Amino acid sequence: MPFAAPATTFTNRAMQPAAANERWIPAPHPGRHALHEGGEGIVNLWCLVDARNRILDKIAVKQVHPGALNYTDATNWLNGTVGGTPREVSMANAVWTALPPGDRQHVVQCLGFGDVQGQGKWRYRTYSEYAGQTNLLARIAAQNPRTKGLNKDGQQLFPEPFLWMFFESLVKVALAMEQVGNGVYHGDLQAQNILFSDNDPNRFAMYPVPKVSDFGSTRDVSDPDVQNRTNIILEDGCHRFNQPPK
């Protein structure tokens, strides 16, 4: 089920199951049931609260249902071990680790995975840090609010320092992706998958921190499916309204 408390296989961060006076509870997004939905998964927010319902921690839980065909595809698992470590987890951790410690904030940290179930269920969960300051698509849309009766509105542009900070952050992640294996092909680097978290008081303190997320479509650049593009048809190409990896 999508709303399932995180309880297994955490990595990269010392995070223990809830203590006796603590519990994990789902926190549905206002106005909708989930933080994000995709072709194979749904992402929900879970909060760790104490006996007085004070929030101690937040994580994003992604319930992935790839179906039998994709689940049993060895290329979707680390070292080809079906039912082992999901490729998106290993790729996210590899890119995060390739960044200098001070720049790792620009990749959503994968904290672990669990509930790996094959025959009949074909699913697993990933646990990631929660980036709660919307995404790039929402911020772009907010630059052009439409007000009935006004001819000139939405004239407020992104501040230039924000743009410098944003593009510098993406370049740092791109360089880290080149350092992993033969290079990492993200596969879904679109505006909705660039999230923002709370401001860094030590760097561009006025602006939220951009984070690349969702490594579910990643591949090693040397993989045959990445190198061989002969099966790409016009509709799958890079239309002006699609992100480059498409």
UniProtKB/TrEMBL annotation:
SUPFAM superfamilies associated with the record: Protein kinase-like (PK-like)
PROSITE patterns named among the record's database cross-references: PROTEIN_KINASE_DOM
InterPro entries hit by this protein: Kinase-like_dom_sf (IPR011009), Prot_kinase_dom (IPR000719)
One example GO MF annotation: protein kinase activity
Chain ranges of the Protein kinase domain: 29-246
Domain of life per record: Eukaryota
Protein name: Protein kinase domain-containing protein
Native organism: Aureobasidium pullulans (Black yeast)
